[in-house]
Fold these 3 entries.
Entry 1:
Amino acid sequence: MLSAARKKLLKALINKLGLKSIDSNLLDEALTHPSFSFEVNKENAPDYERLEFLGDSVLRLVISNYLYDKYEEYDEGKLTKIRSYLVSDDFISKLALTIELNKYINIGEHEEKDGGRLKESILACSIEALFGAIYKSLGYNFAKEFIYKMYNKIDINGEEILFSYNSKEILQQYTQGKNKDLPVYKLLEEKGLAHNKTYVVSVEYENNELGKGEGKTKKDAEKAAAYKALMLLKEKKEI
């Protein structure tokens, strides 16, 4: 049973997001991290994992439909790459922060002290679980319109996303076109705890650093570094 304080907090979120008819208990479940359920010591206490599983599928379907209609000229490969970016933890965790979802998450004391309320993975799971709760409680069409409304607030540029997604390949084509050399990626730093690391990578060409990037994986950091390099080369009108 929800406490009076929890009901008040959820009501504020419901009013903020226009979710008037949503099931409050389902919404509470969507915004409950497993660490909280573990600490209250209730057997089979609900958390967001099942709704996150559902919401992930709902989000992918909605965004697939969104991109199919928005980019009629793109083939399946391009649409897949753009969708991959738009449903990534990095992107949707930032989406969660635009509605301050972190303020409404039930989280365990230890996880709270560890900064869990602002962790990319927790924010991403929470917003996917929210989408799942909206779908389960209010139906697919409502969920679709809600997600569309969130994404329409962002300037989504398909060509720019594809350019960023293919940045390593484009940079390699540029360097090999000049002298057949490959760009060199170097790991500069690993930041954060073991379970929540951020990697910092630089990319060099002909012993000159062209860019630095960060990411939750080395691959993402390399991609970010390559993108920065391409922006520099564009600025110099070399590409």
Entry 2:
Amino acid sequence: MSLSPINVSGIVFDLDGTLVNTIPDLAHAANKMLEQLGFASVSKSEFPNYIGHGVDGLINGLLKKFLKNFSVDNSLVLEAHAIFKKEYRLCVSRFSKVYSGVYDTLDTLKGYQVKLFCVTNKPYEYTRIILRDLALDKYFDLVLAGDTLDRKKPDPLPLNYLSRVFELPIKKLLMIGDSMVDIKTAREAGCPVFCVSYGYHGQNEIDSLGADAIIDSVRDIFPLINLDQHAC
């Protein structure tokens, strides 16, 4: 994909499927939940189809797989949430791994006066632990989780909030994610967006998502951007 370098003064990273492979822990907790509810387990290869819309999306998607007449008002949903929360707390960062190229890319970006953010639909309780345990928390000027603001991705509120609070032009705020959720968020906000090829885009063809660029590693961003200010 041919793209002239874009001017960037802030970079927003998605978490699951972009910075960290969190499927091993999510799958472990979700299958524990399904087992306790009397359902069959789901293979790890299926989980990318259920990730991107936060814990609600994950649990609801899995229950819909097994329930013909699924309803969010069903008492089973409340039970599922309680079980998942208990199980995920026990393993939230146990098996998750940071993707290749992430640490060195963030280290390089920290050498520039560019603002770095993490915006995820994962609840802050889990986000904080993952970032801390995987030594990622030190890189970000602000972390917005799925329950930080009134609305989460794909609503543009998180990106508009960052633009306003940090006084960054929205067109100079680059979103880097892995799914249609991230791309729609960026498009609604009016900022550029790159999509990693290795993430959780489900059954969607990566070329069909409409990102400005598709990258095989976050380190591939450097030829595609111009950072507004260099550190002294």
Entry 3:
Amino acid sequence: MEPLWKPSLSDINSSNLHQYRLYLKQKYNLAFGDYHELWQWSVDSTELFWASIWDFFEVKSSQDFSSVTDGEQMPKTKWFNNSKLNYVENIFKNKNNGFPAIISLSESRIAKETSWSELEKEVAAIQAVFKNCGIRRETE
């Protein structure tokens, strides 16, 4: 069966996956022959994999993590112990008004695009509802 689409070399070289592989080569001297090798490494070296993902995507935090996991088996694992971050800040840090924030597809309607400004307004509205309901961040 013929594929419906095949990425160009330019598409491949500009992908996050390709950039991540270059990052791993530069920072950790790790090279992978194909996607499966990279996947296997991510499974075998879970702590290093997730720490490298945190660094590669430049996760913003007010407090860095002390360990990637607490050593518990899934699903009880606690991730990025002691870190403090604002999820919304991380989602919006690379916003680009030249592209939609979300493209939602459905079999029953045409594709719907949500702009970054629309998404920001919707997030602010949800935040206001949470505040009005008395929902606050957990204190330790």
